[in-house]
Design brief:
There is one protein chain. With 317 residues, the protein is α/β, with parallel strands linked by helices. The protein is built from 14 helices and seven strands. The chain folds into two domains: 3-152, no CATH class; 245-317, no CATH class. The strands form two sheets. Strands 1-2-3-4-7 form a five-stranded mixed sheet. Helix 1 runs antiparallel to helix 9 and helix 8 (183-199) runs antiparallel to helix 9. Residues 242-248 have low confidence and may be disordered.
Length: 317
C-alpha cells in the first residue's frame, strides 16, 4: 500500500471487531480452544490488567491485543491473550514477546493465560509458534496458537459461504493486501464486500460494525472514494428494506463532508488570502451543516476579519 493510504491507527478496527464479535472470532480462528469455553457465561475484557503488563516501549508498534476472562465448560476461570500482529514485516523477537506477556500475566496475577496470535503479514514463510531454550540442566518450550490470514486465500469459497463475521474480516484484509497497487480493483472489491453484507440479510448493527472494518482497512484515494460512494448510493436506492441506509449515513456523508471542507478552504483562500494553521483547524472542525452555511456566507467576505467574525459568531474559536 502506498504510504499516503496507510491508516495511522490500523489496530483500531481489529480491536473494535474483536470486542463486538469475540465468541465468533474464537470459533472462526481457534475452534479447539473455543470448544473448551462456556459461552453461555459472559466474557470480560481485562484492559486494565493488560495495560499493567504491556511495556510502554512497545506502544509504537501496531498491535491489537486483548486480554479476556472466560469460563471453561468445567467451571474453571481461564484468561485468553489474543494478539493480532498487524505489522507489515515479520518481527524477529515475536515469539519471545509472546512468552514474555504470558509470563508477566502469570507473575502479576497468578493466572495462566492461553496465548493466541493472528498473523496479518504477507510473508508466507514467517510462522512463529514457540519460544524455547535448552541448556544441560534447564530447558523450556513455550508454544502458542497461531493462525495466518494469508492461508485463507486458498479457501475463498469457504469464506464466501460462511456467515461468521470474521469471514468478512479476512476477505477484506486479503483483498486489501492483494490490491495495494490496483486501487481501482480495490474499489470494486470494497463495493462487493459491503454489498455482500446487505445480501446476507444481516441486521443493521452488524452491517455497521463490519462496514467500519471494511471501510477502514480498504482505504481509497479521495477520487476513488467519491466514485465508490456514488455507486453505492445508487445501490442503496434500489433496496426495499427500510433500514438499509447505513452506507449513505456513515460513509457517503463522511465523503461529502470532506469534499465540502476542501471546497470551502479553497474558496476562503481566494476571498481572504492565505489562512493560518489555527484558522484552518477551526474550519476543519466544523460540521457539514456549518460548512454549508459558511460556503454561503463567504460570498460576502472581503477580508480575513470577516472570517474571524463568522467563526466567533458560530462559537468555533
Amino acid at each position: 500500500m502506498t504510504e499516503e493510504l496507510q491508516r495511522a491507527d490500523n489496530d483500531s478496527p481489529w480491536k473494535e471487531i474483536l470486542e463486538a464479535y469475540f465468541p465468533q472470532a474464537m470459533r472462526f480462528f481457534f475452534p479447539q480452544t473455543s470448544a473448551l469455553i462456556n459461552w453461555e457465561r459472559p466474557h470480560e475484557f481485562l484492559d486494565k490488567e493488560f495495560q499493567q503488563i504491556a511495556r510502554e516501549a512497545e506502544l509504537g508498534r501496531r498491535y491489537a491485543d486483548k486480554l479476556v476472562k472466560v469460563w471453561q465448560i468445567d467451571g474453571e476461570e481461564v484468561w485468553l491473550l489474543i494478539h493480532v500482529e498487524i505489522q507489515a514485516k515479520p518481527e524477529d523477537n515475536f515469539a519471545e514477546r509472546m512468552f514474555s506477556y504470558n509470563l508477566r500475566i502469570f507473575d502479576k496475577f497468578a493466572k495462566p493465560a492461553i496465548s493466541l496470535a493472528i498473523l496479518c503479514d504477507a510473508d508466507s514463510t514467517w510462522r512463529p509458534n514457540q519460544y524455547s531454550y535448552n541448556y544441560p540442566d534447564c530447558s523450556l518450550v513455550f508454544q502458542f496458537g497461531t493462525v495466518k490470514l494469508l492461508d485463507y486465500q486458498n479457501h475463498w469459497a469457504e469464506l464466501e459461504a460462511s456467515d461468521n463475521p470474521f469471514a468478512t474480516v479476512v476477505m477484506a484484509h486479503l483483498k486489501m493486501q492483494q490490491t495495494s497497487k490496483q486501487l481501482g480493483e480495490r474499489k470494486n472489491w470494497k463495493f462487493s464486500l459491503i454489498r455482500r453484507l446487505y445480501e446476507q440479510g444481516l441486521e443493521e448493527r452488524d452491517i455497521r460494525n463490519l462496514y467500519r472494518f471494511i471501510d477502514w482497512v480498504m482505504i481509497l484515494p479521495k477520487a476513488l472514494e467519491a466514485e465508490f460512494w456514488q455507486d453505492f448510493k445508487l445501490f442503496e436506492q434500489e433496496l426495499t428494506m427500510p433500514y438499509i441506509t447505513t452506507g449513505e449515513r456513515i460513509g457517503y456523508e463522511r465523503g461529502k463532508e470532506e469534499q465540502t471542507q476542501t471546497l470551502v478552504l479553497r474558496q476562503l483562500q481566494r476571498r481572504v488570502g492565505n489562512l493560518s494553521d489555527e484558522v484552518r483547524q477551526q474550519v476543519q472542525s466544523l460540521s457539514l451543516e456549518q460548512l454549508e452555511a459558511l460556503s454561503e456566507a463567504l460570498l460576502d467576505f472581503s477580508a480575513i476579519a470577516d472570517l474571524h467574525n463568522w467563526l466567533q459568531a458560530n462559537q468555533t474559536i
